[in-house]
Amino acid sequence: MEAITPKNELVNKRVACLYRVSTRAQLLGDDMPMQKRACRDFVDKQGWTLVKEYTEKGVSGYRVSVNKRGELQKAKLDAEDGLYDILLVFMFDRLGRRDDEMPIIMNWFNEKGVELWSTQEGQQKFDDYSDKLKNYIRFWQSNGESENTSIRVRENHTQMAEDGLFRGGRAAFGYKLIESGIKNKKGKELMKPVIKPDEAKIIDEIYTYVDEYGFGSNRIAKYMNNERVPFVAAPNGGQWSAGVINFILRNPVYKGYPTYGKRTSDMGVFSMQKPQDWVVSKKQIIELVIIPENKWDRVQQSRSKRSPNKKTQNSNDEPKKITKSPLLFVGMAKCGHCGAPLTTTYNRKTYTLVDGTKKIWTSPKYRCSGKASGKICNGQTIYSPNKIEKIVLEELDIFLDELKQINLKTEIESFNKNNIDGDSQELRRLQNEIEKKYKELFALTSEVPKSIMGQSSFKAELLNTLIDQKNNEITEESSKLSNLQIKVKEMKVEVDEMEMLRKHIPVWKEVYKNSPLEKQKMMLGVLINNIVVTRDRVEVNVKLHIQEIIGNEQANPLTS
To answer: Which of 1, 26, 372, 494 is most solvent-facing, going by the fewest CB within 10 Å?
Structure first.
């Protein structure tokens, strides 16, 4: 620490003070007033003149780059203008903690003729190499402390998330915070999230728009804004956006599984992480459930299939996109001649009424997108909706009448037993196997120090080989586990669809008749895998899992 310069040698020096607290929690305490008081007292003791104060609230000196810190940038501009002679901080780590930036920025101030002082550490000089080395070491230590703190905090949050504990911060949309009745070590009342009924109703509606109507995030956001549904989570009564809807639709907290790590910060810039990288609670918190788990999973599978070119890893059904087309089967129907999707086109005719008013009549038609784009195809370009939709709906009527004669409950239970139950047992076996291999890996790695000291029966080369082999085995088994988890989840969703179909078969036609077009498409999507259309034939292929459940008797395509 540099000796404090006698008061009479620095009299009339102009001083700027910089204060910084790194967390919101500190803003509620006494840290900022403490820094101000210490710096002001120091200025008064030295006989200097305070000309400017810069205050950074809730800014991390480790995570946030110098270029992103507005107050520090203002201090640099004022230094260039010669506003002050000394930049004073409580401690030098208030300037920052990054060892790759702070020595450079401090040297920059020095080159501008600004002296750098700390109330606790005195003046930082740059007279020789030892001064610069001491400056670097200081921030190298601060950087290490911040990095270790970050690791500890991250691990603590990860474990809390896995245990389903509330980690602090704001409640997600659909919840509010109340006192938990539990106090932390400092005697502060801890909060806990509870469901907010009015917002929970909105959450349920958003999931229903996907589950029952096939809406995408853009369409939901537009609908919510048009209906003036309040979005209280947005500042100043902001509007719904597709990004907000997407975030809500993929957040596991709504099925009772709090998560951690949805966003990460790099130098103060936040970015969303892939859902597979989130840390999800290992147990369901029942009191947080807004969306039933089977409905939440159904929505994820529906959304994953919205892209016509995207297929889930283990799905044998063709992915379909629920479109805005007024035609029922756009997204399901394809040309039997060239394999191209059938899309929507319009016939338009203009006619004039007796009073001279001109009217435009439009009629939607199915169009072979392959032939329309010049692809070789010996089928038709245009197909009448009456030809396709009438045939398909008549065949589905017959199919549903035949389904009524089958004991679907028994067939679904049999499908569960032969497929999901067996795969669930395999999941447990894989999980146990991976746990066993991790124990073996730990035993091998614990031999490494002994081998180095010559106290192990294993040679270093053999240990390395065995450790690499065990890591590869864990990677391979983990990949199998992940794929099987996806398969089981998809089958559960399919069985859930069949359960709903079973319950609604007696009134299916009635519900279908009275539903809007979007819901009709979703109802048809539960049954139909694809529709193949040729000049003289319409072939309806029901979903494979329906075929498996009801048996080969109904497995043949419905054709007309």
So the answer is: 1
